[in-house]
Amino acid sequence: MAKNGGLMCILWCMTLMRSKVPTKSPVGNARKSKRKSRPASVASVRPPAEREYAGLRLFLSRTEGFRLALATFDRPATRDGLIARLTNDLTKSSVLLTRLDVSASQASLLIQVEDHVRQHPVPFGWNRAIAIANLEAKLVYSDTPVRAEESGRKDLSFLEEANLHRDAFPTICPCPIVIWMSELVETAIARTAPDL
After folding, report:
1. Tens of pLDDT along 127-186?
2. CA dihedral sign of residues 143, 144, 145, 150
3. Which of 51, 58, 107, 147 is 20 to 30 A from 86 via CA?
4. Residue 196 to residue 175: CA distance in whole angstroms
């Protein structure tokens, strides 16, 4: 995947790479007046990061049941800013985006999602979406090989268990989920839970 300074969309799998997506939405009439003064061909072109952010926002606002997106980030502050921006933007569309910090519990991902859904009821007429954060806290990086050919004990049972439970997620959580993870976790998921 090419790093484009924003979110990378592959079907409905989202990957955030070295984000330069602003954490606040552009405001008001100043932006509109700039658009009016530009030629139509330039005004319709959005920066790649903004297009990818819009794609992720659309993904989370759909009401077609369970879907999973993966997003990698370069810094926790980037992730947190984007989750806050998504929460604000989705509220305008009657979508409740809640954050699940998986580092706070020793339970499996499926059980944590089930408890999270139960603890965060959705207002009448609203839809739900979940942002899962701090998955990297579930891995022991000192046991993760640096090179693919190295062997080493890995603490990836959390991911393996999530992969085994993958068919139960649509029943437990019939809504979109985005898993935010570091690039190291992205590699671990590709090896350990490719079917998740």
Report:
1. 999 999 998 888 765 555 544 454 444 444 788 888 889 899 999 999 999 999 888 777
2. positive
3. 107
4. 15
